[in-house]
Amino acid sequence: MIQGHAIVRRGRNRSRPEFSARWRVLEKHAKAEQLLARVGLRCSRLLLSYVLLTTGSILCASVAGTYVWIYIQQQKLLAQWNKEELSSNDSLTKISIPKIHLEAVVLEGASRHSLLVGPARLINSALPGSGGNIVIAGHRDTFFRHIHKLRYGDDIFVMTGGERFHYRVVARRVVQPTDLSVLRPSTEGHLTLITCFPTNAIGPAPQRLIVIARLVTARLLASSTK
């Protein structure tokens, strides 16, 4: 029995160097795999960073380009309105709100393109000077981004057809998009401004901000009396 044990022990001694060598090889492979995994992870993170940075730059450039295009288009309309005012042949409408330093030409029909270029009058609403309810909509991130600052008594001017109509803010409301009561006709000469609310919301805004103004006076523009 003792001799048998000695034989087994000697067998283990002979296999130990081979086992150690294999272990060292496996250990080297494991370290190499760990190193490759770390390198791959770093490369993946670096690649993802470049992709995100490139995507963000493209989006920012696209947004900036859109705002520049909007500004240029609106400036062209204002220049056209000024020429028509001098010639007393007004076919465009301009809105001016001193409180928020807004001057913009109002387009007809609240289509996607119209609202992109400027504020737009809803076709079914009244015309300036008709004594009805003029409804003008605008995007909260462009032309109407500051109308939430309007308060009772603030002035709004609408110029068209050689006349200037002076409105004064009388109410502000926040309503659901399905509330169409703000579109109802009026016999008192109202101006209704509509934009999405909250004005600083990220993504689609769930409500609508309504600013209601009442007609105070109407007079001829100075150029029309010449």
Plain-language structure description:
With 226 residues, the chain is α+β, with helices and mostly antiparallel strands. The chain has 2 domains: 1-63; 88-225, Sortase (Sortase, Chain: A, Beta Barrel), CATH 2.40.260. It contains 2 helices and 8 strands, in the order αββαββββββ. It has helices spanning 2-87, 112-117; strands at residues 93-97, 102-108, 120-121, 133-137, 155-160, 163-175, 190-197, 207-220. The chain has an 8-stranded mixed barrel with strand order 1-2-3-4-7-8-6-5. The longest helix is centred in the first third of the chain and has 86 residues, at 2-87.
Protein topology:
Layout: H1 2-87, E1 93-97, E2 102-108, H2 112-117, E3 120-121, E4 133-137, E5 155-160, E6 163-175, E7 190-197, E8 207-220
Parallel strand pairs: 2-3, 4-7
Antiparallel strand pairs: 1-2, 1-5, 3-4, 5-6, 6-8, 7-8
SSE-based structural type: alpha+beta
Q: Which sheet architecture does the biggest sheet show?
A: 8 strands, mixed, barrel
Q: Quaternary state, please? A: single chain
How many structural units, i.e. domains?
2
Task: Kindly state the number of beta strands.
Answer: 8
According to CATH, what is the class of the largest domain? Answer: Mainly Beta
